[in-house]
Specification:
The complex is a heterodimer of chains A (about 300) and B (about 375). Chain A is mainly α and about 300 residues long. Chain A has two domains: about 45 residues, no CATH class; about 220 residues, Orthogonal Bundle (MetI-like fold), CATH 1.10.3720.10. In chain A, about 70% of the residues lie in helices and about 0% in strands. Chain A has 15 helices and no strands. A six-stranded mixed beta sheet of chain B has the order 6-7-8-3-9-10, with helices on both faces. In chain B, strands 11-12-13-20-14 form a five-stranded mixed barrel. Classes of the chains: A mainly alpha (about 300), B alpha+beta (about 375). Chains A and B meet through helix 10 and helix 11 of A and strand 6 and helix 3 of B.
């Protein structure tokens, strides 16, 4: 449908009252829940953290000091870099990428299995079993993982029972629990887009390729993966964005020495009560992740429109 | 090119749980034959094709291609190429990549693949279209690309699973001729699956007619049309008028049938049923609409049917006259259009006669459902 006809068509199909109501709600959502909060954060990030009395006064001017703080650790001297915060930032981005890649490899076989054995009762049961754990609160799930990965947790007890290890492994300090928690937290957002596209793949194409002598590797490389690409990228985008912006899992499962960038943001907002500084950190994270996602999409030749399908 | 490789099915049974999809199939397909499996949907013909291509294993029996037992050999290792009902072209690959996919598998260079694809594109009269995507082609062009893709690997046997069913009538008729031409040019064995008797009769050297997992008759299209072996074949292939009755007399390969409605009628016995039909048996007799002629009996009343006209339809090249028949079914007579306004009036009693050679009698059995 041509976009300029969309509105008139939309009103014709839904009636004037319902049409206006629907468009009004979408507009409300867009403006009040997405655009305005982000703009106010952007505004915050360029202001000084002033006592309430001075806000709006002559000292309340725009500044880059919050961004300078992230890079140099000080807005006065530019002699040293803020290596602690920058390292946390880089580590967060790389770890989120690794979690995303890990999830792609974990979900692809599962999505392929689910998508190609369509309709069977067993598969539907499997999907329900995958969803049920997500009825539980994210924080409770993180604590459950913390218990499983603990010194006397299920995993260590099992490993020691099997004599695979003599002393308990410190999964928390080694950040294994953190990565497992992050991977698990958003895995369904990877699985379902992949499952949807693979389910729409015509089985005959796989059989045709097989009939022409293709090995399983080649069938996946040439037929299944190209078809599933929009789903994979869509899932990867969500997992990457949400992992980089996760708070509960790093808070609960992170080792004592490892900070997640969102924890810094949280500290600025909550502990230091410096919303301006926190907003700057959050904006940097947001812009960086968007740039990374767009770059990856361009590299894999996927359009925004393909993802929305 | 190759002179064609024979395909033999020996005592093939295919079961899915309790369901028997194919029952005791014995088929010997000669090398270079255009062989069709014809039957209504669900008769097991696609199952047979999947067994030949290697996508499923028969529960029992042996499939041989060129004399070689195929059991345990996967679809990617068999000398067969399958054309799917929906063609299954790869939508994200260009036409030439689609065509040469089987060469990509064997590690041929892009240059070699492109060359071979261009040759095949020439053959299917689509030269210069190699860089398009399949979605940019018309239905008939896609059809031809699917054929080229299957031929690219130089298969010994080409398997076609109702590949024309998605095309419109005109194109379908055109593709029939084209498929037949391609088969004669490459000379390899074609095994064709269809529910369309017109396709089977026009293209095939030999046809196997299937019903509910059982092969009723294997013969040339001509023999299947003129000398059907079972009531199912007689009623499924082409149009036919059925007369039920009891055998009154048998003389050589002719039988006198005392029909329920039209008195005693003389008929030849289906060649495969000679000796199996005895006096007193329930029998069925079939006469094609075009074998019935207007006018009084020339020799005897034993080849004459009299009945009331129910109605008449003008078909363009012919008139179809429907007369009161046996068991609520009408008898159809086809009269070529010779410029007359009409053949009959409603309610008029017509006398139709036929040649006993054109009538086929056989033991009573199940008819094809309409």
């Amino acid at each position: 449908m041509k976009s300029k006809f969309f509105l008139s068509e939309f009103f014709k199909n839904n009636g004037a009252v319902m049409g206006s109501l629907l468009i009004g709600l979408v507009g409300f959502w867009l403006i009040f829940l997405i655009i305005l909060p982000q703009l106010s954060m952007l505004d915050y990030s360029f202001r000084f953290n002033l006592p309430p009395a001075e806000q709006g006064g002559p000292k309340d001017v725009y500044t880059l000091s919050n961004y300078e703080h992230l890079i140099y650790g000080s807005d006065i001297t530019h002699q040293t870099y803020n290596s602690v915060d920058l390292m946390v930032f880089v580590r967060t981005i790389i770890a989120a990428m690794l979690v995303t890649i890990f999830n792609i490899f974990l979900c692809y076989p599962l999505a392929y299995f689910l998508g190609q054995s369509k309709g069977s009762g067993f598969v539907r049961l499997l999907v329900v079993l995958l969803i049920i754990p997500y009825w539980i609160n994210e924080i409770l799930r993180a604590f459950a993982l913390r218990i499983i990965f603990g010194d006397s947790g299920l995993l260590n007890e099992t490993l020691m029972f099997l004599h695979l290890t003599e002393a308990p492994i410190d999964f928390i300090r080694k950040d294994i629990a953190l990565y497992a928690g992050l991977g698990y937290a958003y895995i369904l957002l990877m699985l379902f887009p992949m499952y949807n596209v693979i389910e729409s793949l015509d089985r005959n194409q796989i059989e045709a390729a097989r009939d022409m002598g293709a090995s399983w590797m080649r069938i996946h490389r040439r037929i299944v993966i190209p078809h599933a690409k929009p789903g994979i990228v869509s899932g990867a985008t969500m997992v990457f964005m949400l992992s980089a912006g996760a708070l509960a899992a790093p808070q609960i499962l992170g080792g004592p020495s490892s900070l997640w960038f969102t924890q810094l943001v949280y500290q600025w907002f909550n502990d230091s009560l410096n919303w301006q500084q926190g907003a700057a950190y959050a904006i940097v994270l947001l812009v960086s992740t968007i740039v990374i996602v767009l770059t990856v999409m361009r590299f894999f030749k996927v359009n925004m429109g393909d993802i929305g399908k | 090119m190759s002179s064609g490789v024979a395909v033999d099915l020996e005592d093939i049974w295919i079961r899915f749980g309790d369901f028997v999809a194919v029952k005791e199939a014995n088929v010997a397909i000669k090398g270079g034959d255009f062989f069709s499996f014809l039957g209504p949907s669900g008769c097991g013909k696609t199952t047979i094709l999947r067994a030949v291509s290697g996508f499923l294993d028969p529960s029992q029996g042996q499939i041989r291609i060129g004399g070689k037992d195929m059991s345990g050999i996967g679809p990617n290792k068999r000398p067969t190429a399958l054309i799917f009902q929906n063609l299954a072209l790869f939508p994200l690959m260009k036409v030439w990549e689609n065509i040469s996919f089987s060469m990509e598998v064997t590690g041929a260079s892009a240059k070699q693949r492109r060359k071979r694809a261009d040759e095949l594109l020439d053959m299917i009269a689509l030269d210069g279209q190699g860089d398009k995507l399949p979605s940019e082609l018309s239905g008939g062009q896609k059809q031809r690309v699917a054929i080229a893709r299957a031929l690219c690997a130089n298969p010994d046997v080409l398997l076609l699973d109702e590949p024309l069913s998605a095309l419109d009538l005109k194109l379908r008729q055109h593709m029939r001729t084209e498929l037949r031409e391609i088969q004669q040019r490459v000379g390899i064995t074609f095994i064709y699956i269809t529910h369309d008797q017109g396709e089977a009769l026009t293209m095939s050297d030999n046809v196997a007619v299937m019903k509910a997992g059982v092969i009723d008759q294997i013969d040339t299209g001509h023999n299947i049309y003129d000398h059907p072996a079972t009531p199912f074949v007689a009623s499924f292939v082409g149009e036919n008028n059925v007369f039920r009755g009891r055998v009154k007399e048998i003389k050589g390969n002719e039988a006198l049938i005392s029909t329920n409605r039209s008195g005693d009628l003389l008929s030849s016995i289906s060649p495969s049923q000679v000796g199996k039909l005895a006096v007193g048996d329930d029998a069925m007799m079939f006469i094609r609409p075009e074998a019935l002629q207007l006018g009084p009996a020339k020799k005897s009343s034993k080849t004459t049917i009299s009945a009331n006209v129910i109605n008449e339809e003008f078909e363009g090249n012919s008139f179809s006259v429907f007369l009161e028949g046996d068991g609520g079914k009408s008898v159809k007579m086809s009269v070529p259009n010779g410029g007359q306004d009409k053949i009959s009036d409603r309610g008029e009693v017509l006398s139709l006669h036929y040649n006993a050679n054109n009538a086929v009698a056989m033991p009573a059995g199940e008819l094809a459902s309409e």
